[in-house]
Amino acid sequence: MKPGKTFQLVALAFLGLMLVLMLLFTYNLWLAVKREQFQRLRYLNTILSASTRHGLENYESYLSMIGHRLLARGALQQPERGRPLIESLKKEDMRIVAYGLAAPSGQLKLVSGIPSQNLPDLSKMEQTRDSFAAVLHTRHVQLGRSYYFTRLGSWVIPARVALLDLQGEVTGVMTAGIKIDGGHLIWGELNLPADLGLEIVRDDGYRQYRFPIKDHNYKKYYDDPVNASYKQLIQRLHTENTNIIVDQELILAHSYLAEFGLHIVTSMPYSGVLRIWIKRLIPAGLAFFFGILLFLGTVLYASAAQDRLLQLLERRNQRLKSSNDILKDYCFHNSHTVRRYAANIVGLARLLNQTDGLNAGERLQLQQKLLECGEELDQTIQLENAKLEQSGKTQS
Predict the structure, then answer these.
(1) 91: helix, strand or coil
(2) Which of 1, 147, 205, 332 fits a 20 to 30 Å CA distance from 256?
(3) Where are the alpha helices (DSSP H) in the chain?
(4) Quick check: is 368 in a domain?
C-alpha cells in the first residue's frame, strides 16, 4: 500500500473515532440534562409542598386566633361587635379579600365589607357545603372550592377553621377569602420560575390554584373539575411517586398533602429540557466543529506536502534511472570503441617488437600509425565525455 493511501486511511479512522466520541458525549449530555431537570422539578415540587403545608398551618393558627377573639366579643350573638376587628385586619392584610364568622349550622353571621343582613348559608351553597361539612370534623384548616365572590368582585380561595370550646365542641367557624389574582398567595410569594407550571388539585377533582393563567380566564379552570384522564394521571403520579413525561410535551412531578386533601402537581415543558441541552451542547459542538476543521486542514496540508515529496522522489528516481541508462550506453559504446583502438594499438606494438625483417622506413611507418591510433582513441574518449556531460546537463 502506498504511503499516501495509508496516511489518508489513518486520518479517516481518527476522524471516525472523533465522531463516535462526539456522539457519545452528546447522548451522555442529554441523559445528564434530563436527569438534572427531573431532579430540579421534583425538588421544586418538594419545596412547594412544604411551603403549602407551612402556609396553611400559619393560616390555621391565624384564623383560629382571630375567631376566638371574635367569639370573646360575642360576635355570634351580636355580629357588629366584631366588625371593627375584622375591618381593621382586612386593611392591614392585602392577601385577604374578606374575613367571616359562621355559626356551626353554616349561617354566616359576619363578613368584612358587607352588611350583616341576608348573608348566605355556607352549608347550602354548592361551592361551600362540602368543605364546610368537612371542617366540622377536622382539626385542620380546610380550603373550600375556589370561586368568584360576586359581592366582593374577586376570585377567592376560602379557608375555614373550626373554633372549639374547652370541651372540644365546635362553637363557630372562622373563614377568610384569600385573593387568587393578587400575587399574595402562599404560592404567589415564592417567585416561581417562568418555566414552571403549578396546579393544586383537590380530592374532589377541582383546581384549588393554577399557575400561570396567562389569559386570566379563571372561570375556565376553577368552575369545573379536571377531566377524567387528568385525574387518572394525578392518581398515577400519586401511586408511582416519580416523574412522568406526558406525550413528549410535559414533565410532571407530584406530592400529596393528606391532611388538607391537596395534590401538588408541578410541570415543565419537555421542550425546555431540549433547549437547555442544546444550549449546553453548542460550546462543545462549536469546539468540535472547529477542531474538525483544524484537523482536516492539517490533514490536507500534510497530504499535499506528502504528495509533493513523493513527486520530488519520483522525479529524482526518473533522473537517476535516466542517468543510469546514459552510463550504461556510455560504457557499452566505449567498450566497443576503445576495444577497437586498443586492439589496433596492441597489434602495432607487437609488430614493432618484431625487429627481424623490418627496415627503418617500415618501423617509422608503424610508429606513425601507432601515434595516429593513440590520437584517435584520445579524440574518441573526449567526444564521448562531452556527450556524457551534455546528457548530465540535460537531465539537470
Answers:
(1) helix
(2) 147
(3) 3-72, 83-92, 129-135, 218-222, 228-240, 270-353, 360-395
(4) yes
Q: Is 190 helix (H, G, I), strand (E, B) or coil?
A: helix
Q: Please give the tally of structural domains in the chain.
A: 1
- Phi first, then psi: give them for residue 175, nearest 5 degrees: -130, 155
User: Is 374 a domain residue?
Assistant: yes
Burial of 141 by CB count in 10 Å (0-12 exposed, 13-18 middle, 19+ buried)? buried
Domain membership of residue 292 (yes or no) is: yes
Is 155 a member of any domain? Answer: no
Rounded distance between C-alpha atoms, residue 252 and residue 198, angstroms? 10
Note whether 173 and 141 are within 8 A (CB).
Answer: no
Residues 6+ apart with CB under 8 A from 174: 63, 64, 66, 67, 70, 99, 100, 101, 160, 161, 163
pLDDT in tens, the chain (396 residues): 555 567 678 778 888 888 999 999 999 999 999 999 999 999 999 988 998 899 899 999 999 999 999 999 999 999 999 999 999 998 888 788 899 999 999 999 999 988 888 898 999 988 788 889 989 988 889 998 998 888 778 888 999 999 999 898 999 999 999 888 765 556 666 677 788 889 999 999 999 999 888 778 889 899 999 999 888 888 888 888 777 877 678 899 999 999 899 999 999 999 889 999 999 999 988 988 888 888 788 877 877 887 788 888 888 888 888 777 777 776 777 677 777 777 777 777 777 777 666 677 777 887 788 788 888 877 888 887 777 677 666 655
Q: Is the peptide bond before 212 cis (omega within 30 degrees of 0)?
A: yes
Torsion angle defined by CA atoms of residues 379, 385, 389 and 390, in that order, rounded to the nearest 10 degrees: 50
Secondary structure (H, E, C), 155-172: EEEEEEEEEECCCCCEEE
Upper half-sphere CA count for residue 218 (Cβ side, 13 Å): 16
- What's the domain range around 354? 276-395
| pTM > 0.85: yes or no | no
